[in-house]
Amino acid sequence: MPEIAPERMQQFARMREVAREIFASALKNASIEAAFARNVHCERRVLRIGDDLHDLDTYHRVFVVSIGKAAHTMAAALEAQLGSSLEGIVASSVEPARQVRGFRYFCGGHPTPTAESIRAADAILNSLTSLDSTSLAIFMISGGGSSVVEKPIDDDISLPDLAATYRTLVNSGAPIAEINAIRKHLSAVKGGRLAQAAYPAQQVSILVSDVPDDTPDALASGPTMPDSTSIYDCERIAAKYDLIDQFPNPSRIFSASMRSRRHPNPTIPLSSGRAGGPCSRTKWPSMKLPQPPPAPVSPSKSITPATTGPTIKPPPTYLAVCANCVAKYRVSV
Predict the structure, then answer these.
(1) Domains of the chain (ranges, CATH numbers)
(2) Which of 75, 102, 224, 276 could form a disulfide with 270 if both were Cys (CB 3.0 to 4.6 A apart)?
(3) What's this model's pTM, rounded to 2 decimal places?
(4) Per residue in 273-315, pLDDT tens?
(5) Where are the beta strands (DSSP E) in the chain?
């Protein structure tokens, strides 16, 4: 095997160094703290999230719900921008070293729900239903929220059966969007039901996503997003991966829960701004290397809630960050 020239070795070493710098820079710029610093600001009691403005003095109550593996980090980042006058609930799968003042903390299960997951869901639903039209609900959603906050739509579904169903779905080989389609139809908090619970409060959702950019309702099973799936999708997915015989009490899972629930198409209330209340959405960079942005979707086919203010433009994604880093550290080969 021919020896590599010393100059070539130095070039390879430099390329490895540049690759590390690109990765470190992309990771730093894509952190939750950096994303909040770029996109969330509060000055003279006016909260800006992206391009949307919320005059906090016009609300009788501001309530924050932070869900998922990044729930505490998001709550702490929001506190850094708004100060310590917040109240809300943080539901995560990990116990933080310190808690953000004013928040109740729940440590739900992941990747399967636990009794604490159900307690978190009950606490969130109870708090949201107490809001009125003079309230602002700030939802912060991240990956892992499906199991961290959960409540069966049918009380006949026991926690052990629910956990076993989750394990079957996770081990099925199905992509996350298909897994969460079934989860949504078993849940009292997913598929837009938290947004419905918060009506008539004004609402804004901040998403730190680990799902494809064109399926925001798959993130944490879309607790504040209109559901783009149906019971027929669930039946198709279950048949595709041969799941029915693997579910515990399949007749109860599908008949008692899913068939009795005409998944209300939250698309109607949420996108119309009537039953679901005005709702705006901020989508931040995925915590992974995203795909190129999807082609524009016509308004008639859009599943995203209508905004009450200007359209919120997402900040640079990993791809843009990496492109900037490559330009900065370009090395000729």
Answers:
(1) 27-151+187-227+263-328 (3.40.50.10180)
(2) 276
(3) 0.74
(4) 322 333 444 434 333 333 334 434 333 332 233 333 333 333 3
(5) 40-43, 46-49, 52-55, 61-67, 88-92, 103-107, 135-142, 202-208, 279-283
